[in-house]
């Protein structure tokens, strides 16, 4: 998988892949989230990317990611809410 938005290959950790399976989020949805979701940065390397998907009733879907030599997806959450 490759992110055009970040210009980097995407690596999904084992933990993130397990959370995706539990939450019925497939790779196409993950890529859509990474490419088109709203970004909030923690610092220059760590961020959250969140997006609402039509047909899902679990609020925002969010990926916690780290930028290194690739975009690393650490975990994927649902029922996500931005902190004020």
Mean pLDDT: 95
Poorly predicted parts: none
Output the CATH topology. YaeB-like fold
Number of strands: 6
Query: What is the CATH first-level class name?
Result: Alpha Beta
Sheet of most strands: 6 strands, mixed
Characterization of this structure:
It is a single chain. The protein is α+β, with helices and mostly antiparallel strands. It has a single domain, classed as YaeB-like fold (2-Layer Sandwich). It has helices at 14-22, 27-36, and strands spanning 2-3, 8-12, 38-41, 46-51, 60-67, 71-80. The protein has a six-stranded mixed beta sheet with strand order 1-2-6-5-4-3. It is globular, with a radius of gyration of 12 Å. The termini are far apart. The mean pLDDT is 95.
Short description:
With 84 residues, the chain is α+β, with helices and mostly antiparallel strands. It is built from 2 helices and 6 strands.
Helices and strands in order:
Blueprint: E1 2-3, E2 8-12, H1 14-22, H2 27-36, E3 38-41, E4 46-51, E5 60-67, E6 71-80
Features:
84 residues, alpha+beta, YaeB-like fold, six-stranded mixed β-sheet, 2 helices, 6 strands
């Amino acid at each position: 998988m490759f992110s055009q938005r970040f210009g980097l290959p995407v690596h999904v950790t084992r933990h993130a892949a397990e959370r995706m399976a539990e939450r019925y989020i497939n790779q196409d949805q993950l890529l859509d989230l990474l490419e088109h979701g709203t970004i909030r940065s923690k610092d220059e390397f760590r961020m959250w990317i969140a997006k609402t998907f039509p047909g899902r009733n679990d609020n925002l879907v969010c990926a916690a990611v780290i930028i290194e030599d690739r975009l690393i997806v650490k975990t994927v959450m649902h029922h996500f809410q931005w902190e004020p």
